Structure formats: C-alpha cells, structure tokens
Amino acid sequence: MITLTVDGSPVSVPAGTTILGAARRAGVRIPTLCFLKGVSDVGSCRVCSVEVAGRPGLVTACNTPVEQGMQVSTGTQRVVDARRAALGLTLSAHGLNSTNFCFSCARNGSCELQDVCREVGVTEPLLPAEPKRKPVLDGNPFLAYDPNLCILCQRCVGACNSFARNHTLKAAKRGLRTTIEAPFGPDWKATSCESCGCCAAACPTGALTLKRRREYRSWEVRKTLTTCPHCAVGCQLNLVVRDGRIVDTEPAFGPANRGRLCVKGRSGSFDFVQSPERLTTPLVRSSETGQLEPATWDEALDLVARRFSEIKRDFGPDALAAFACSRSTNEDVYLLQKMARCAFGTNNVDNCARVCHGPSVAGLAATLGSGAMTNPIADITSPDVDVIMLVGSNPEEAHPVAGMQIRAAVERGAKLIVVDPRDIGLAAQADLHLKLRPGTNVAFSNGMCHVMIEEGLLDREFIDSRTEGFEEFAAMVADYTPERVAEICRISADDLRAAARLYATARQAPIIYCLGVTEHSTGTEGVMSMSNMALTCGKLGRPGCGVNPLRGQNNVQGACDMGATPADLPGYQKVADPEVRAKFEAAWGVKIKPEPGLFATQVFHAAVEGTVRGLFIFGEDQVRTDPDISHVIRGIEALDFLVVDDLFLTETAAYADVVLPGISYAEKEGTFTNTERRVQRVRRAVASPGDARPDTWIFAEIMRRMGYAQPDLTPAEIMDEIASLTPSFAGISHARLDSPEVAGRGLQWPCTGPDHPGTPIMHVGKFTRGRGAFSTATYKPAAELPDAEYPLMLTTGRILYHYNACAMTSRTDGLNEIVSSSFVEVNAADAASLGIDDGGRVRVESRRGSIVTTARVSGKTNPGEAWMPFHFQDGNANWLTIDSLDSICACPEYKVCAVRLSKA
Ligand SMILES: Nc1nc2c(c(=O)[nH]1)N[C@H]1C(S)=C(S)[C@@H](COP(=O)(O)OP(=O)(O)OC[C@H]3O[C@@H](n4cnc5c(=O)[nH]c(N)nc54)[C@H](O)[C@@H]3O)O[C@H]1N2
Ligand SMILES: Nc1nc2c(c(=O)[nH]1)N[C@H]1C(S)=C(S)[C@@H](COP(=O)(O)OP(=O)(O)OC[C@H]3O[C@@H](n4cnc5c(=O)[nH]c(N)nc54)[C@H](O)[C@@H]3O)O[C@H]1N2
Ligand code: SF4
Ligand code: SF4
Ligand code: SF4
Ligand SMILES: [Mo]
Questions:
Q1: CATH superfamily of 358-549
Q2: Which of 272, 444, 556, 579 is 20 to 30 A from residue 814's alpha carbon, by CA?
Q3: Ligand 3, residues 163, 198, 260, 267: which to mutate, most atoms within 8 A of Cβ?
Q4: Nearest 5°: phi and psi at 424?
Q5: CA 267 – CA 824 distance, rounded (Å)
Q6: Residues with Cβ within 8 Å of residue 467, at least 6 apart in sequence
Q7: Which of these, 289, 642, 356, lies nearest to 515 by C-alpha position?
Q8: CATH 2.30.30.140 fits 792-903, yes or no
Q9: Average pLDDT, the chain
C-alpha cells in the first residue's frame, strides 16, 4: 500500500494505482475527458492535469502512478488555468462553427465534452474553429465518423484495441497533428472491422457514432436493462426506447460482457422486435382455401385443444410431441414442458440442444456428473491462464464477446492451440493450429492422452484421488500413437506431441469447445474425449481450467435445465427415478411416465411411421435448420396436426395447421441462463404488436382447454414454482435477481437456497458424480465419407453477422447489407481442378439434395474439404446434410457429409 495526500487528505492505495484512482478513493473529483477505465489512458486531452509537490510540470492524473508520500493538488489556480486551456484547445479542435454546432449533433445532451466544459466553466474555444469541413465517413451500415467533431482523444482507438481487441482503428501522425484512421469510408469492407460499435460507445462526442443515434436525443428516451437475445454469452444491454419504440441499445457492465457487445447484440437485437413482418394474430388453415387465414384466439386455441385431445384419445398421449424454444425464457420453457407432461401426458418434449449441445449434456454428465460449462468466461480468459485449447469452436463469429476476451488473453501472453479443420480467424493468432480432418476429434484426443501418458505429463495424484477407470482408458489409448493419429487426423505427429506438452504442462489451461466436437454421429464420444484430456492432467475443479462447451442459443442452457428434454424433468431430475416422479406428481397432480420420450430428431421419423401425429413447435424452424430438409418435410407432411408458436411466419410455420403469435424477449419478463449457467433477467421494454400474446399465456390456455387446471401465473411466480421443485434452482427468484445484492451479476446454478451465492466453478474438490469417469471410446469414422461419386467432405457452420435461420437477424437491413446470401468455401486446388472461379456460381450435390450457391475460393479449408454456412435460404446447406444421428443422444452429423461440386 502507498500513502499519499490528495488536496491535503491522506489516502492509502495499492501500488500501481493512478493519481486519478487515488483521488477517487479520497472522494476528490478530477474531471477527465479522454480517459476511459480499462480502455484508454493516453492522457492526450490533459483535462485531468494536477500538481504534484516537487515536480516542475503538471502531470496527467489518469496515467501517473502514485508514489509514497506524494502530495497532489487538484484545485490550485495553476491546475484550473491549465485545465481550462486544455479544454479550450480541445473545443477548438472540435470545430464548432456556423455549419457545425451542438444542436445538429447526435450526441447533444449526452456529450461528455459538453459535460466537462460545463463542469470546468469553459464556453468558448481557445482558437477560432477551422472553417474547412472534412468529409464525414459513413460507408459502414451502422457507424459514421465525423472528423470535424473529433477531439483526438483516442478513446475509440483504445476501445477497438484493448476492448474489442480488433485493432482496426489507429491514431496516426500527420506532421505535428494526430489523426484518427477510422475505416468507415466507402471501402470499409476491406478492413477487419466487425461493426461491433465498441468504438462508438467509447467516443465522448458525436464524432464516432452509430448512425441511428441521430434519430433521438438523450432526454427523450428511457432504458430497460435486459439480456441479449442471440448467443449464449449472455451480454447485458439496455434497450433504449422512445415513444414505445426501441431506437438503440447500450452495453451494460454484465459479468460476461463487461461493457462489450458484438454487432448482433448492438445492432441486430431490436429491428426484428418491431418488424412489420411480425405475426400479430393467430392463423388457422382454412378447410376451404387450404390457406392460413386470420382467426380469433378462441377459435385457434379451441381447435388446438380439440385436435390434440382427439389424437391423445385415439392414439395415446405419446402420439403427441412438443419442441421448446431455446431463444425464449426459462419460464416459457418450463411451462411448455409442463404442458407436454401434464396436458399432453407425454415425455416427448425436447429443444434445439438435440441438434447442438445434446452431446455435451450427455457426455459431460457421464464423465463429470453435470452437463454444463465448468468455469466462467472471465475465469478461462483471465490473465492467469497459460494455455487455451479451442476445439471445434469459432468464438470470434459465434460467441464474439467471448472471442474478444480470448483475443485479449492471447495478446496478454496465453498460448493458443486451435483444433479446427478451417482457418478460423483465431488460427492466425494460434501457437499451434491442428487443421484436422472433420470427424476425427476422438482420435485426436486419444492421441493427446497417449502422449501425456507416454511422456509422464499426467497428474497421477488427481487421477488416483478423483477419477475412475484410468487403467482401462490408458490401455485403450496405448494404440493411439502420434503417428497413427496423425494419419487419421491428417495432421503432423510432432504438432500433436507439441500440443499435448503445451496443454499438459500449463498451470491453468481451459478446453473451450463447441459444435465441431458435438455435431457428429460420435458427438457424445467426442465430448467425453474432451473430459479425458482434462482428467488425465488434473485440469478440472480449478480456476482457469475445465471443460467448457460454449452453449449456442441465448437460453439453450436454460431450455435443458428446465426439463424440455425427454428423459429429464427440471434440473436434470430423471423421469425414470420414482422419487423424482412422486415429487412432481404430487406438485402437478398428474401421473408422469417413467419411460423417456422421443428425441426431437426421432420425431419426424416417428411421424413418417405414423406413431407421432400431433406436434407443437414453439420457436424453432426445422424446415430450415434440421438436417436433410426433404426428410423433415416428409415428416411434417405426415403429421395429422401441426401447431407453430413463433414471432414470424417461418418456413416451418407455413406448413402448420395453426400458427400462434408469441411475443419476443423485449416484450416479456423472465430469465435466460447463459453458457456459464448464469441466470440473468430479461425485462419488458415495449408492448407486443397486434394481438400477439405471451407464450406462457398460450400454453396455460391450451392446458386448461385440454382439461388441466393450470393457473395463470406471472413469470416471477413460475420461477418460484421452478425453484420449489428443482434443488439446483432453489435459491433463484426474480426478487433475488433484482435485489441490489445480485443485480448485475445474476446467479450461477447450482444455487441451492436463498443464501447460497451460486456456483462459479464446478467440480471443486469433488465431481458432481463423485469420481470423474474416463471414457474408453475409440475413434469411429463419420457416417458418410467421401467416395468416387461424392468426393468432397462438406462441413457447415456459422458466420458473425447472421444467426441460425435468420428469423431475427434478417430484419436488420445493415446486417443484410454486409452479407445476405449463401456461399461455399472451396480449397483453391479443388477449385482449379473443377474449373471453379472465386465468386462463380456452383452446384453442390449430396445424396439428399442439390443447391446452387456462390463459390469462395481460398485456402481456408484443406483440399478435399468444403465449408458452408446454413443461414441463407437461397442455398440452404440443410438440403445436403445427413441425418445420421449420434448413437447416444441423437444429435445430427451436421459437420460431415459427402458432396460433389460442379460449375453451375
Ligand atoms: N453469429 C452467430 N453466432 C451464433 C449462432 C449463429 O447462427 N450465428 N448460433 C449459435 C448457436 S445455436 C450455436 S450452437 C453456436 C455454435 O458455435 P460454433 O460451434 O463455434 O460454430 P460452428 O461454426 O457451427 O462450428 C465451429 C467450428 O467447428 C469446426 N469443425 C467442424 N467440424 C469439426 C471437427 O470434426 N472437429 C473439430 N475440431 N472442429 C470442427 C468448424 O470448422 C467451425 O470453425 O453459435 C451460436 N452463436
Ligand atoms: N447445417 C447446419 N444446420 C444446423 C446447424 C449447423 O451447424 N449446421 N446448427 C444447428 C443448431 S446448433 C441449432 S441450435 C439449430 C437452430 O435451429 P432453430 O432453433 O430452428 O433456429 P432459430 O433460427 O434460432 O429459430 C428460432 C425461432 O424462434 C423464434 N423465437 C425467438 N424468440 C421467441 C419467443 O420468445 N417466442 C416465440 N414464440 N418464438 C420465438 C424465432 O422467430 C425463430 O423462428 O440449427 C441447427 N442447424
Ligand atoms: S466497430 Fe468494432 S471493430 Fe470496427 S472499428 Fe469500431 S471497435 Fe473496431
Ligand atoms: S472519434 Fe471520438 S473517441 Fe475517437 S478520437 Fe475522435 S473524439 Fe475521441
Ligand atoms: S456476443 Fe452473443 S450475447 Fe453478446 S452481444 Fe453478441 S450475440 Fe449478444
Ligand atoms: Mo445451437
């Protein structure tokens, strides 16, 4: 600790604290302008200048560290004069003149330059403003840079470099002048800018802004704190509302994002809410026209209840099934599964985790006892982490705010191992990139463990005290010599050895993985292999370690936690367990079947066979997102009765007998659970459109009309019911989440009582299942390998700017402007031999279907391998993908199928 005085008051602070920090601690306010905590402390504006006894010149408080015995004065005449002069100069650079004044500026009223000038009492520029106007750069769909208003404080540069870690913005020297090189001109697309807007959020003036900022003034709006509706990072943001319309977003300081947002959260999270294409009234298929026609809620709900009841009576409850929406709240999902179990009477209920991280739930439960991310994002990207191993995960595009924090960890010195068949962005920063053949993860990780065991890099004490099954496992991996694995995975044996050494010898090293591991016919085995690596070298139950699936949808963790799965009631309590059933039967007043229901991916097969006849789809678009679309359509057409509850008339909804308009996250109260098991609040910011109704209201109405007396409960009351039945949620309530104690950090389950603080790191001291279990899964090739007829291996995935079937992101024009149509990435060698040019149209065919799309020729994939996103309907990859399913939990093999390419 260092003791100093600020304006005569003594204060003690840790070494390394700045004068500004010490003054704040002492309760002394020093005005600042260019300073932004954690983002920028270049000291360029000199507004924070202070006097230090014994030093000739003034020093900038924001970046000068304290020293023992320092005497700081913040209000002497010399300081005040200097501060006013500095601000006067800044105001001159700000270029206010007859064509350019505060009234016309987007930030008028929320400008930090205005604020600090008022505080310091500066009203005039020191020098006359330059008359010459520089052009405004506004080629980017979301962002604009007006150099005339720029005060060269460099906060934007700091935000891009140290916050977004994207290094797109630069401060350059032109002679004596500093200039900001902001790439928002006509050729902005050629830069690495991700349009995240972190720079605009940091700019204190109206120089670098979101264009939409021009449309409102700060005094006209109110803000609602909520959770991003896209990916499972769970960024906290404010929806900015004027006159009942969302006009903007602002980042909040949530535990996972700490002030950051990506382009989808910042700019893609509200246009869909107020899109004119939203469903506003129930639709019922007319027996006369065969078309979906508007209907009243009574007509629609009575029909739904009558048809489902008839199917139940004639074919039994298991002829019904329901799919839950992982984009919606925990409270919605809980009630949906309750509808399936209490009104339908079936365990045929599932959610999109089936096609996504179902293998994580199953594989981690089998090896560790709990199917969730073991450590928080801040922990696995902290400065203490030595090595990050990223397997089949592209966080810069799919979990961008986690990606920013991974980039930061790597820039701070963490080593990075990327295990991915493609040159994802992070591969360029990797110390080792194992560009393995898709579908070979189990061989890779068996090889890793082989090397760890062979070279004595294992943690014997951890293995002995905390795991079981090691001897059998070690015997199995003995066959996976680096040379054999290198051949299977098409990587170098030396790289494999190097990766094993790097990972095993690190003190803190998390495995972060995603769909490159799960979406395979051997996905669950792939996940168990991730556990094997961590168990072998004792990297579990400790900070900065663990096995960390980045979950996909904003609330897919929650959808699984809430029991929208065929074998589990809420909190992974097994339907097969008589005690569990007895508890729920007593609470719900119904009998629950002991047999697990069908997996979602089995339901369309069952429909074709005639065993499932009625289906309720809540917020999923399988006709775009399930593998082998032709098969999905056959299943859907075979159903007697299909109900879709969505925000939009999706491809799937177009096949429905009844379409029900639900409401979006911005129109409801509730909670989402992010990938860190963190339950966070979702809050109503605006009214819902037309006659759209809360999804919970819809489910309760159907339940009642089918004869189950479900009371109308508020989302807070539903959470209380969840807590009363689910030990791991027992301490969670809306009241507690809104309380000052918890607000802003949420609660990470397990949270077993009202005083339980939640659980940031799992498996500390003991695994949820007792001992960690090694898996002895051996490598099995993917279900469909390339052959003479279909010689290329196709793998599919995501890009930054669009989300799944684009139901939501396609309503934002700026995102569509950046990219809005399908493409396939082909290796240059394959393209050359097929006569395919970059940008040319190509036909892609598999045994299941054929599409035409645009070729992107590069070296991103290996020869013999192609990659495409599945977002775009103009060439949807899912006409091609195969519905071969994971043998344990029925996840489809989206990541491998065989195709052929030809010039179209
Ligand atoms: N922008 C955006 N973000 C999203 C989504 C979105 O649609 N758009 N969707 C959300 C959802 S639902 C999910 S589940 C997540 C998914 O997030 P991710 O899983 O990160 O995304 P993907 O692009 O599907 O696949 C990740 C990587 O797996 C690699 N891969 C393919 N096959 C293999 C293999 O056999 N082995 C290995 N090691 N790697 C392989 C691919 O090359 C790819 O880089 O993203 C979420 N976030
Ligand atoms: N080829 C290929 N295909 C894939 C994948 C892949 O990697 N490759 N990934 C798979 C994965 S991981 C996933 S998760 C699936 C995703 O597949 P889906 O779940 O089918 O895709 P989404 O586009 O997220 O669909 C969500 C729907 O919910 C609606 N919705 C959102 N919020 C609400 C709400 O509050 N209430 C109501 N009623 N509706 C709401 C939206 O309008 C949208 O139509 O796609 C899978 N498909
Ligand atoms: S939008 Fe994001 S990536 Fe682009 S310049 Fe700004 S901070 Fe950098
Ligand atoms: S654009 Fe804004 S943040 Fe960047 S240097 Fe100019 S005034 Fe500062
Ligand atoms: S990283 Fe995910 S949660 Fe965060 S703003 Fe982007 S899409 Fe939303
Ligand atoms: Mo997903």
A1: Dimethylsulfoxide Reductase, domain 2 (3.40.228.10)
A2: 556
A3: 198
A4: -70, 160
A5: 26
A6: 535, 771, 772, 773, 774
A7: 356
A8: no
A9: 95
